[in-house]
Amino acid sequence: RSLLLLVLATGAATPASQAQGLKLEARGGANLTTTTADKAESGFGYVVGATGEFGIIPFLFWQPEILLSQQSYEQNLEDANINQDVTLGYIQIPIQAKVKLFETVFLNAGPQVGFLLNDEITLSGANANALDEDDIDYASVDFSIAAGVGYILTSGTLGELQAEVRGNFSLSEAVDAADNGMIQQESFQNRNYMISLAYLFGL
Question: What is the pLDDT of residues 41-94, one digit of tens each?
Fold first, then answer.
């Protein structure tokens, strides 16, 4: 009888102990970025980074991440005959809540803060000389909400391979409105969509 009680107690404790465990994740993928500005065209970039996963209860996890994200897009200032090819580099820190719906399907959502590392702007068009790259002031910090859905492709003793699609929607302005006397630049927010693969392994 004592042995039976011990087995039952161990079985009941196992999900809880697994839920409390720490797992690490390496992530890599691609970004599709656009903006809320008029005449903006999407561009592709990359994302790489690392994730920690902390179990709360068997189906609910806390998932902080640190990501290096490249976001690119093109904007046409049609009235001014200027095209802007823009590439932005961010360090992004999402804090996600992850919910497992089934054995292989999960959802995640949460806030994110991004820190601008660099911006590269190439101007072209008939009036490109009328606008200087320094006239466009990108915000150094970007606050956003991210949400996505994922699927566990394989799972084994060493870890699991996951695929995820995530949308990232800025709450703050990526660039402030500007007027250099000749060219007007409207304010806008980033919209970013990420598809990635991640390998999750336990400690």
Answer: 889 999 999 999 998 888 899 999 999 999 998 877 666 677 778 899 999 999
Classify strands 40-57 and 60-77 as parallel, antiparallel or unpaired: antiparallel
Alpha-carbon distance of 135 to 90, in angstroms, equals 20
Per DSSP, the residues of 141-164 read EEEEEEEEEEEEEEE-SS-EEEEE
Q: How far apart are CA 40 and CA 81, in angstroms?
A: 14
Selection from 165, 163, 152, 27 nearest residue 102 by Cα: 152
From the list 116, 127, 129, 128, the residue with the least C-alpha distance to 170 is 116
pTM of the predicted model, to two decimals? 0.77
∠ at Cα 19 (15, 23), nearest 5°? 130
